[in-house]
Protein 1
Amino acid sequence: MAVLLIIFMTAVFGAFGDDFIEEIFIKPLPPTHLYSYFQFITLINNNDSFVHSNLSPRSIGEVISRFKVEELHLTLTEGQWRHNQWGYPVVDAAPGAELYAWFDPEVEDIDAEWRKLSATLSGLFCASLNFIDSFNTITPQMALWPTGPVKSNVNVTSLLRYASLPREIVCTENLTPWKKLLPCESSRGFSALLNSRMIHNTNYHSIGVHVRKVCASEDCTETKLEIKQTVALVYDYKIIGSNNWSFIKLFGHGLPGACPLATTSTIYIDITSNVTFPFQLSPPPDKIVSSHRGGSVTNLAVYNIETDVEMINVGVKHNSKEKLGVNVPPPLHFNRYVLGYGKEFGGIVTELINNYWTAIDVVVLENAPWWLPIQLSSLRINSEAESKLVKSQYYSPGRSRQKPYHLELLLTLPPRSTTTITIDFEFVFLKWQEYPPDANHGFYIGSAIVTANLPTAKNYTSIPVSGISYNSTFNASQPCMYKEM
């Protein structure tokens, strides 16, 4: 009877044709941090109807089909990623909650579907996404583009909506429903390592859900749906106790094997720094892969995890505890801070640092709430009212209590330069009921978005737009590295 049951389950899984992939990527962040990235990918070959689902989370499928969403990105983040010290993560995310989506061209009222979508996701992930409305939603024109296939005759910018909630706090109540979307939940597989008691002690942690369509054939006439769930964590060696780490130190226990429903379960560890700062991996990896990408060479230790294995505790032990690596700045990073004091006037300053020897084109998106009006006449780039660095700009003025302020700039950054963007603002006199809770926190402003095609893969770990799993980064030959920060 058991044999017949296994054969029947295999036949059912094959009929649906869903694939599930789980991966972990670990990279040291010199001098004192460690980056671990989880991604769980579900590929759905038959996405016409979610009445019957196999490995895919039915709740996400119903949301996508009900509101006719073509592509969706949701992140909940605590902490700030230090690009100038750590380079680029696999997936960038702004502090707080960030949500943006492209809708089907057949949707008549996108704003109404957008509000329904945010309210539904709010209940699904126990987050405050129901506070997203027209007064904090914008339609980016240049900064964001879909990562899945789109029709050539469709104006994708008009189908896009973007909103962020910088005050949103990520907690255990967000992680629990997120894990329940996985085929094995948190009982088996890599998700068993996601112990809320351990991961919320990190300097930076971010969970995300990314839904898009990917090509199922070479000519892209057929597509399948990709649901990618991600977790990014940054540990401090001071909290761990030393630069020697293991799964037990990071997550509280070892890995109990792969998820039985996973097609592949792989762990990648960046060992490029092993040349200058030797360390030993335990247990030894199954293989070592050398990847040449964008003028940069990365060495990765690869572990292929099986289902029927004993508890695995992957770890690193350095030969010398006194030696610490030196961080190498990425080709492009930026800083952002506020000028002025009091509750009347001020300014927002964004510094773009190009460390590369050639010019880089970037798109900068500034999103200010309605109670913080920014005036286009006060825009200064390197203290100049009119700059030759600006190739294109878009400005949408806000409206009190109805619409945020929205500014986008297409700039060409000179080689080895620092470009400063300054814009003034003035506070709106708020009613006493409009002040946010926890007055000691002050006011939160949404993060800026910087989009660029990087000419080199230095400190670059992102997966190519056309790729699905992390092995698609091996020897990737794209001419430019697309990055959103």
Protein 2
Amino acid sequence: MVWALCTSGQAITKAGVNANSTITASGQALSNWSDETESAICSVANKNVVSNFSGLTANGKEIMAQLASDIIGQQIINYDMSGYTSRHEATMMLNVLENRISKNKAIIKESDNKAYLGLT
């Protein structure tokens, strides 16, 4: 399940330019976070969206990509906040990502959206 829902570049971009360069270059850590995130998203969707990715609608794919990259972006920021100009900057970035994560999880869980996203 490596990088089925988003790319590492998408996730790294979400962490911003001040993200720790050691972790953003660590393929293994990023891959592990990707696997964990994809499993969590499958649980939220109550469907294996990784193996059924081709069955998602274009909008469904974009929402899954945004959700996955936001979650992994949070992990990157949380790994080491010392590179950010302040702890407040890192916290604000985490809050923005968390807001989108919450909204996208709600969209995925809403039964009226299942067909629209290709989750039926």
Protein 3
Amino acid sequence: MIYSTLSLSLIGVVGNALIIAATVSSPSLQKRCNILIATLACADLVVCIYLVQLRVLMLNGWYMIPNRHCYMVSIGGLFSLNVQAGMGLVLGIDRLLAVMSPTRYNRPRSKLLCCCMVFIVFIYSSLLTLYGYFYVSDSPTPVCLPPAAYRSTSRSVWVACNMAIAVIVILIYGIAHVKCRILTSKRIHFMDHILFLFHYL
């Protein structure tokens, strides 16, 4: 189990590094949506490195450690996990804006809104990560994994926040999907009218 998850984490490191490298090196990819994806890839990269680190420690018998120690080792990974969740939401909102109002999508005000959302994600991630510190203790943690680094109320809050974000993301993509279907239907209906007119000309 440890070896399989270690292998997947290493694949994640390589894959996310390639996404970041492609975005940085290719001007054609340096558009708003791609930059958001690259930002998410940065968070994913740190998470994958963090998971590799944990697997290596487990292979060396790193079990039953104090919760405080687990939290301090995991703090970078926890922050990146929170950024990961937040950026998933920002990407969903960005795609919804592109579908709902394509003419306004590339306006400066829209780009500023996107930057503000990313900034809010980093603030949210910092606060949620820091919140876990107030509940750390010296009680033993059998296996130091992301949920175990949080303790007591902070773990419940972390799980609730991630579940709420997941539900909101599903709703946003659902709305975007419905909007796309409506637009496609209107476009097909319009083309049918054009073809009908040409038929009688």
Protein 4
Amino acid sequence: MLKKSSFRYYVIVILLIYVPINHSLAQIRYSANAEYLIPLGDLKNNYTSGVNAGLGVKYIFNRQYDITFNTGYTYVQGKSVEDDYFIYSVRPIAGVPLGLGFRFKPDNLFFIQASGGPVIVMKPASDFGWHYSGGAGIHYKMLEAQIRLMQWNKPEIANFAGFQLSFVF
């Protein structure tokens, strides 16, 4: 029977054998990004649009695979509805998503990315939830443009389409 530490050692060795890592290409890149968010589904009835500003770190394994970590501040503006009898304002959603992702690059220009992780919700009330996203984009020199779909499970199920522009250094 294998001990836990021996089992972990064998798993790591097997992963290193089967994951195509070229150490001469392995490198770290940093990014600063801005994103415009459009609420989807039922969320679009109560929210107009949102923005996200963030920072990221990307570890490049080889020409095809990257691992990413991103964080930032997201703010989604609520709508105000007014008629003859009342004024109703939807409180904004604000939070800090922490995302760990995987990126596949079929060539030097295009990429497909999936990420997820915890989100610290600050508005309308302090809470803790999860977010998931998937998208595709273009990387050209020091710029990246990405379109993605994102879902938060707190403060309610919130779906967004995002258009992100990143400066990579």
